[in-house]
Design brief:
The protein is built from three helices and two strands. It is an alpha+beta fold. The longest helix has 12 residues.
Length: about 70
């Protein structure tokens, strides 16, 4: 799970670095944030996020279900 608003470096930068690194590029990244703009969603997916969730729109149980589906449980 990765939020886009984090200290020191924004989540887009973290996602980009994860996907550029051979050791971490295959790790599925789910964005979990309060940013709802289509531009943010598009950018996250373009950078390699597998799912984009807006915190206010999902319950904890729904987030857990999305995680399980993403990792194949």
């Amino acid at each position: 799970l990765l939020d886009l608003i984090i200290p020191k470096m924004n989540g887009f930068e973290v996602l980009k670095k994860l996907k550029e690194n051979i050791a971490t590029k295959e790790i599925p990244v789910i964005i979990l944030t309060n940013l709802e703009g289509i531009a943010e969603v598009d950018k996250a997916v373009e950078l390699g996020a597998v799912t984009y969730l807006v915190k206010a729109q999902y319950s904890l149980e729904e987030v857990v279900d999305k995680i399980k589906k993403t990792i194949g449980e």
